[in-house]
Each structure stands twice: as structure tokens, then as C-alpha cells.
Write a structure and sequence with these properties.
Layout: H1 8-15, H2 23-34, E1 40-42, E2 49-54, E3 57-62, H3 66-71, H4 78-83, H5 88-110, H6 120-137
Antiparallel strand pairs: 1-2, 2-3
Helix pairs in contact: 1-2
């Protein structure tokens, strides 16, 4: 439901590639793709949300601005503003942002397929996978609360 193919996080990343995508469109897609899942609940009160039944109880999610937050893009004026700063570190960051923007524009103009957009959920999943890998190789002497709860019991 969450991290699998056509899961909530995967669909959020897919919506980044859709032109003029909306949060409402994302929720509609989630409910269409995963609507039969027994743990996904359509929100009765929130028009921009849904709920997931976790083993500890139902959790409602308000999806307002999820697409913008997941895109992980700097504001359009950031490269110019940072490049004109008096601090050399900020100037370097501004130059790097300018290079990224120019490379993305060149790729778009050239008609080549764009690289996969870096998203917050993508970075989160990679980080979580790395953490679980480290925990799995260790011999911990504590409760592993980040490992999946396959028995679905508290």
C-alpha cells in the first residue's frame, strides 16, 4: 500500500512527471489504484486526503500541497539571488543551482528523455532502505522499531 508498485509513495513520485498535476488528481489516482485495499480509507471529511488503517489505529492524511513539497525544487529566483550574494559560499550554491537549471532546460529543449525528478519521497525511501540494511547486518541489543511489523501486532 505504501511503498510497493503503485503504492502511495510511488504514485506521489509519478505525479511529478505529469504536467499540471494537482493534489486532488493525486488523491483520485490513489483511491483508484488502491481503493480496494482493506487498509486504505477514503476520507469522509477531508476533500484533499485519505486515511490508512495502521495496526495502532486509523491515521488521516491531509494531502494539501503534497506535490509541491515532494518536488524538492528551489524557488525560481533562488539561483539569481544566491549568485548576487556577498558570501562566497552562497555564490557557489547559486552557481550550482544555475548549472542544474541550465542542464534541465537543455535536456528539455533537446527532446531527450528527462532524468527522473529527485523527490523528497525518493530520498526518504533510499535513506530508509540504507538504515534497515545497516540494522539487518548488525547485532543490536535494542528493540528494532523501524523494522517491518510482519505480524501486524503492537
Amino acid at each position: 500500500l505504501l511503498d510497493g508498485k503503485s503504492g502511495v509513495l510511488d504514485l506521489l513520485d509519478e505525479m511529478l512527471a505529469v504536467p499540471k498535476a494537482t493534489n486532488k488528481g493525486y488523491i483520485t489516482l490513489v483511491l483508484k489504484q488502491q481503493g480496494v485495499h482493506p487498509r486504505l480509507l477514503a476520507s469522509k471529511f477531508e476533500s484533499l486526503g485519505f486515511a490508512i488503517r495502521h495496526y495502532a489505529g486509523d491515521v488521516a492524511y491531509d494531502c494539501d500541497s503534497w506535490l509541491e513539497k515532494n518536488a524538492n525544487r528551489a524557488p525560481d529566483e533562488a539561483p539569481e539571488l544566491l549568485s548576487s550574494a556577498s558570501c562566497s559560499v552562497l555564490q557557489e550554491i547559486g552557481a550550482a543551482l544555475n548549472e542544474e537549471a541550465e542542464a534541465a532546460a537543455a535536456e528539455h529543449r533537446g527532446g531527450r528523455s528527462a532524468k527522473k525528478v529527485k523527490s523528497v519521497t525518493g530520498r526518504f525511501r533510499a535513506s530508509l532502505k540504507q538504515l534497515i540494511g545497516k540494522i539487518s547486518t548488525a547485532d543490536p541489543h535494542y528493540i528494532r522499531c523501524v523494522k517491518p511489523n510482519l505480524e501486524k501486532v503492537p
